[in-house]
């Protein structure tokens, strides 16, 4: 380190993951990881802090939404961060138009002008799904590589990353985020191809079963600019996580990737302003120069998530800043939805779970997807579809919820088919009316057809699920109409229709949906979108009407008590998992598909949606638009869900703070019922295992029979079955019982007590270990405390998962001070540090100066609210 740059690595990180640091041989040079992290941090920290502060100011502004989120004036000037070239917004848009129409003008620009996109990362050359997810545990990386996907976005160091903390009280010894980086390096270097991991008490082997040349393209997904890495300090302050992540991957994995014939590929998330895009461009170009590049975009390429509503108004500028590196933009639907809720935080938008009003088929979300497709096509890039993350249940699910899997598979196919059709963009020769795909393919109309969305996202490597999504993305263009027109085929369970098969053509309701979205005409024929007014002024009418209205003008819609409760259910469940160190969480979702329960994969983006929307509900006391009920827990055929009507609200009645309190109490009841039901299932499995050992009947079938009460399969085993309630009580003491959910006895003690009832101590111990929960139940009251304070706090927090990151490894007293500072409330909900009723950072800072609050609480506050030190 130089005198100006002092980089300190946490001793635990340096000891366990030191292979990531130090000197690296890259492209014939010796480069020091810490030195580059330090230099980039000192160079860009101020810019990053200013950019985050601009986000905060925009969020807090009370100006009208259309005013503060307007498109830039056509004559506003922007300076390219690498070339220094200055262009107006009009000139940048004109350059896009010139590129689309193949005009060789001074203003024309296109993506990747210094080096074309390599075929391995080009969505048009390798169509299909990109899979994302953490690379720790390492078996998850191996399963992603083995999947039939076009790319792995792993490790995911963004929304579904392993934690960069070890939760308080956890048995975990590793910092998951750093271990995933080691796993990535060892896999890319060929040092890991097979691992043995113990899961549920069994040793399992995982092996990469593809030759290296058939691996999916490796794309590294970096964290957002709003995060800090508290394990790495530069001149005494935490370094930006994004810089640490970029540098570690570039300097560790450039050589292994080069030996494979690959460049460095990144996925960049959560950029909102051109200033932020400029920072990313500076990072990329500095790293390329360190590697020896003479021109930008020749050693690094990136894809990026267009997942912030604010970014849409600057999108041509952002793409122009990134033109040397950008392969294409992904429609990151979840963060985008959350950003719209933030944008409109002065009112309550419709239920975010309401597909027709807020989902991908909503008017504004269709405009978003089409806008992304058009701009990518104009720039010579590739639009990329969004995430579908409804997971399949295992066939041995104790409640038999695998019966819902056909719904999940069809939803995947339908989602990717819709994206494929949205990406069909036609530039005609001369004036035309509405055209069909058949008209274009037959030559009836002249022009150029663009087939945009050929790649999209998935979160599960399940073969059936991946196949369902790949089908529409990989199908030849001329086959799409036949796929839609194919005969209906249905999956049935017990003689009842569940969902259309993946191979089925559109049902009547699906066809009506696609017609309403403008993807098909009334005859059911595919109708590509026709680009017409190709002028800079016409850009603001790009989608056929006012572009701002199309993207951002969200009409009032339904607000139901059931969906308020569901949002709380999802936020509390996911927040509980964050506190336990899991950022990629499959949660049983009882609302997504009416009448069914499915496994919905949540990450930080879904938490942002639910918490932000709940905050707007808490602040504005909206009137519900339908009669409805707050519901207590009930054991159903699909497990314990909120299903027992308790508190009724009539249409027009306001959802008040008192209703929030009742919702909070009902969720506490659900938590208790859910944990106790899990313990009952464990008791049932113990008994089923003992019966299975005696009879040879499959354990899973016995468990399902006991749950369904199929008496004929249980004859002769009444003694063991009657013991299940007593066994459940013992299990709860071992796993954590109401109200504190702390473990009262060890697994060994529980095994002795249970074996005194049913015998076979060894088998009982094995099942107790196999079934023991992954997560510390005592974190359940903590997330409830956090959510209650957040709903009551007058301040809107963007990316509020950061609060949980900060407190997850802290003791109770430290945690309490942080929560008081962040939410301006004590544990009982009493206001703190208020001036005229409003939260006051001045009063909080004064409390620190007077020794009434610790400095770390103020530092946590400023991190969460993006307040720069200056």
What structural category characterises the helix and strand content? alpha/beta
Overall geometry comes to globular
Report the strand count.
30
Helix content: 40-55%
How would you sum up the major sheet?
5 strands, parallel
User: How would you write the strand order of the largest sheet?
Assistant: 10-7-6-21-17
Low-confidence stretches: none
Arithmetic mean of pLDDT: 96
Q: State the separation between the terminal residues, measured CA to CA.
A: 25 Å
> Count of helical segments?
33
% residues in beta strands: 15-25%
Radius of gyration: 27 Å
Q: What does the oligomeric state look like here?
A: single chain
What does this structure look like?
The protein has 870 residues and is an alpha/beta fold. Helix content is 45%, strand content 16%. The protein has 33 helices and 30 strands. The strands form 11 sheets. It has a 5-stranded parallel sheet. The chain has a 4-stranded parallel sheet with strand order 11-14-15-16. Strands 1-12-13 form a 3-stranded antiparallel sheet. Strand 25 and strand 26 form a beta hairpin. Helix 2 packs antiparallel against helix 8. The chain is globular. The model has no long low-confidence stretch (mean pLDDT 96).
């Amino acid at each position: 380190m130089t005198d100006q740059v002092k980089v300190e690595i946490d001793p635990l990180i340096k000891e366990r993951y030191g292979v990531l640091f130090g000197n690296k041989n890259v492209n014939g040079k010796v480069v020091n990881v810490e030195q580059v992290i330090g230099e980039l941090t000192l160079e860009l920290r101020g810019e990053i802090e200013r950019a985050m502060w601009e986000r905060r100011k925009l969020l807090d502004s009370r100006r009208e939404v259309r005013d503060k989120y307007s498109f830039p004036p056509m004559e506003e000037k922007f300076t390219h961060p690498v070339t220094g070239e200055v262009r107006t917004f009009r000139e940048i848009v004109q350059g896009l138009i010139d590129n689309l129409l193949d005009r060789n003008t001074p203003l024309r620009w296109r993506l990747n002008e210094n080096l074309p996109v390599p075929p391995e990362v080009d969505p048009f050359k390798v169509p299909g799904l990109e899979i994302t997810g953490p690379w720790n545990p390492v078996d998850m990386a191996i399963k992603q590589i083995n999947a039939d996907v076009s790319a792995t976005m792993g490790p995911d160091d963004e929304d579904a990353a392993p934690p960069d903390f070890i939760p308080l009280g956890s048995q975990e010894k590793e910092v998951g985020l750093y271990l995933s980086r080691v796993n990535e390096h060892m896999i890319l270097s060929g040092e890991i191809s097979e691992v043995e991991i113990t899961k549920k008490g069994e040793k399992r082997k995982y092996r990469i079963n593809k030759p290296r040349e058939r691996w999916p393209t490796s794309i590294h997904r970096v964290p957002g600019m709003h995060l800090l890495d508290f394990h790495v300090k530069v001149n005494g302050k935490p370094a930006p996580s994004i810089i640490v992540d970029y540098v570690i991957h570039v300097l560790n994995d450039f050589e292994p990737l080069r030996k494979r014939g690959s460049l460095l590929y990144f996925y960049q998330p959560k950029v909102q302003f051109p200033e932020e895009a400029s920072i990313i461009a500076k990072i990329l170009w500095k790293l390329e120069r360190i590697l020896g590049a003479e021109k930008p975009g020749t050693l690094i390429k990136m894809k990026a998530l267009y997942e912030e509503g604010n970014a849409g108004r600057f999108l041509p500028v952002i793409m122009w800043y990134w033109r040397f590196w950008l392969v294409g933009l992904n429609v990151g639907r979840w963060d985008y939805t959350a950003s719209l809720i933030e944008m409109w935080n002065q009112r309550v938008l419709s239920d975010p779970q309401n597909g027709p009003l807020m989902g991908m088929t909503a008017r504004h979300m269709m405009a978003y997807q089409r806008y992304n497709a058009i701009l990518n096509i104009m720039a010579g890039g590739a639009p990329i579809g969004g995430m579908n993350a409804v997971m399949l249940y295992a066939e041995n699910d104790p409640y038999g919820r695998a019966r819902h899997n056909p719904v999940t598979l069809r939803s995947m196919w339908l989602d990717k088919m819709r994206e494929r059709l949205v990406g069909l963009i036609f530039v005609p020769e001369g004036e035309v009316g509405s055209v069909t795909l058949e008209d274009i393919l037959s030559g009836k109309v002249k022009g150029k057809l663009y087939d945009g969305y050929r790649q999209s996202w998935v979160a599960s490597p399940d073969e059936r699920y991946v196949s369902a999504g790949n089908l529409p993305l990989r199908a030849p263009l001329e086959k799409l109409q036949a796929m839609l027109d194919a005969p209906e085929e249905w999956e049935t369970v017990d003689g009842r229709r569940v969902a259309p098969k993946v191979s089925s053509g559109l049902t009547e309701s699906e066809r009506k949906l696609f017609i309403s979205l403008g993807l098909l005409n009334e005859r059911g024929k595919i109708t590509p979108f026709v680009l017409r007014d190709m002028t800079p002024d016409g850009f603001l009418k790009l989608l056929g009407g006012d572009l701002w209205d199309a993207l951002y003008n969200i009409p009032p819609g339904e607000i139901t008590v059931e969906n308020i409760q569901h949002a709380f259910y999802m936020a509390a469940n996911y927040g509980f998992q964050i506190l336990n160190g899991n950022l990629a969480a499959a949660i049983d979702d009882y609302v997504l598909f009416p009448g069914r329960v499915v496994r919905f994969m949540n990450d930080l983006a879904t938490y942002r949606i639910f918490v932000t929307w709940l905050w707007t509900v808490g602040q504005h006391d909206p009137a519900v638009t339908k009669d409805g009920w707050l519901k207590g827990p009930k054991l159903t055929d699909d497990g314990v869900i909120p299903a027992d009507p308790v508190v009724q609200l009539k249409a027009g009645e306001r959802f008040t703070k008192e209703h929030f309190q009742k919702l909070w109490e009902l969720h506490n009841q659900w938590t208790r019922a859910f944990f106790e039901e899990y313990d009952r299932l464990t008791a049932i499995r113990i008994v089923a295992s003992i019966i299975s050992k005696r009879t040879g009947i499959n354990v899973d079938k016995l468990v399902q029979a006991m749950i369904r009460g199929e008496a004929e399969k249980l004859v002769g085993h009444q003694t063991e079955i009657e013991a299940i309630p007593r066994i459940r009580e013992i299990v709860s003491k071992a796993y954590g019982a109401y109200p504190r959910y702390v473990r009262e006895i060890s697994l060994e003690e529980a095994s002795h007590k249970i074996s005194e009832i049913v015998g076979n101590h060894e088998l009982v111990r094995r099942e107790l270990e196999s079934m023991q929960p992954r997560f510390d139940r005592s974190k359940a009251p903590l997330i409830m405390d956090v959510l209650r304070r957040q709903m009551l706090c007058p301040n809107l927090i963007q990316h509020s998962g950061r609060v949980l990151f900060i407190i997850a490894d802290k003791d109770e007293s430290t945690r309490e001070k942080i929560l008081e500072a962040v939410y301006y409330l004590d544990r009982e909900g009493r206001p703190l540090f208020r001036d005229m009723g409003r939260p006051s950072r001045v009063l909080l800072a004064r409390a620190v100066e007077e020794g009434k609050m610790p400095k770390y609480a103020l530092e946590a506050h400023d991190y969460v609210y993006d307040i720069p030190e200056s």
